[in-house]
Amino acid sequence: MTELFALDIVDCSLSGKNKIIGKLVVDKHESERSQNLHWSNLNDIIQNHLSFFQEKENALLLASNERIKTCEEYLINHMDISKDEKYGEIECIAFFTMLVMLYDCLKQIFQKEQNAVNTSQSLSFQCFKSFSDNIQKVFRDEINVPINTPPNDSEIIEFLRSILFVHPIDTNRAGFLRKANKEKKTFYCPWAYLYGKNININLFFDDSRAILKLPLEELQNYTNSLIAKIDDLVFLAKKKIETIGRRPLKASDKTLSTIMEE
Predict the structure, then answer these.
(1) Of 163, 120, 119, the residue nearest 139 (C-alpha)
(2) What is residue 7's predicted lDDT score, i.e. its pLDDT?
(3) Is the separation of the CB atoms in 172 and 186 below 8 Å?
(4) Of 96, 67, 95, whose CA–CA distance to 162 is shortest?
(5) pLDDT, average across residues 165-189
(6) Cα–Cα–Cα angle for 68, 174, 225, nearest 5°?
(7) How large is the average pLDDT for residues 168-190?
(8) What is the pLDDT of residue 207?
(9) Which among 25, 28, 173, 240 could bridge 3 via Cys, Cβ 3.0 to 4.6 Å?
(10) Taking the CA atoms of the chain, what radius of gyration do you get in angstroms?
(11) 200: Cβ–Cβ under 8 A, 6 or more apart, which residues?
(12) Do residues 128 and 160 touch, judged by C-beta distance below 8 A?
């Protein structure tokens, strides 16, 4: 059941003297869930500074802000991935969809704002160590495609995107495969599914098949590391405020909530 309450919008400027200048209606349960997210710190900054909406260069960050919330909420609530025999594969794809969406948001923002972020912009955290070794071994021993350099985390995410989503089912788009696949073999993947403590990824090629085994623990570690990178966007948002100037909300100003409703 939806339970609504009103938040005060306060003018925090020196001249405003913390005067209440408006109300924002919020779903109580949605607010409680959001308070514990890394995203909430980013959203607080964006919501309370109209300058974000006035600067065209912030369009990517504004759009990503809404996606990041959805991704982080879903990922932290589905970290174990369902073992449902009928729909487990679908939940795997849903999890990877949210993970890749968060990955792409961070990647694009870091690329655009590379001079403004003060920490490493790499989205490789060396979480997929055994899975990277497994990829190398399977492609070398069972598919006869020797991969000289183990793929890093970012390459693995892009590899998973190329085989698990509805377009396409072949795996040829991964960068490390294009380099190693000199015979231009085509590999196909119908599903990924949770099996024990691994995400099993079936590969079909020619008249044979192989199975890649992604440890669930490694996937969880990478997911948590990626979510933690949202804090870098908080630093970026604060830096933007310092650069373009701070303007407190007025009663006539539109918040992100009202803009999204239009």
Answers:
(1) 163
(2) 40
(3) yes
(4) 96
(5) 64
(6) 35
(7) 66
(8) 66
(9) 28
(10) 22
(11) 192, 193, 194, 211, 212, 213, 214
(12) no
Name the strand (E) or helix (H) holding 7: strand 4-11
Which position has the token pair 């599914």?
193
Q: Indicate the pLDDT class of residue 54, thresholds 50, 70 and 90.
A: low
End-to-end CA distance of the chain: 24
160-164 long-range CB contacts below 8 Å, 24 or more apart? 160/96, 160/100, 160/192, 160/201, 161/96, 161/100, 163/187, 163/189, 163/201, 163/203, 164/92, 164/93, 164/96, 164/189, 164/192, 164/201
User: Cα torsion for 199, 33, 39, 235, to the nearest 10°?
Assistant: -130
**pTM, two decimal places:** 0.73
Choose the weakest-confidence range: 6-10, 62-66, 257-261. 6-10
- Give 163's pLDDT tier (boundaries 50, 70, 90): confident
Domain ranges of the chain: 4-87+229-261, 129-219
Q: In the predicted model, what is the mean pLDDT of the chain? A: 75
> In angstroms, rounded to a whole number, what is the distance separating the alpha carbons of residues 133 and 243?
45
Q: Stretch 106-115: mean pLDDT, rounded? A: 85
Q: Which residue bears the tokens 């990924």?
A: 192
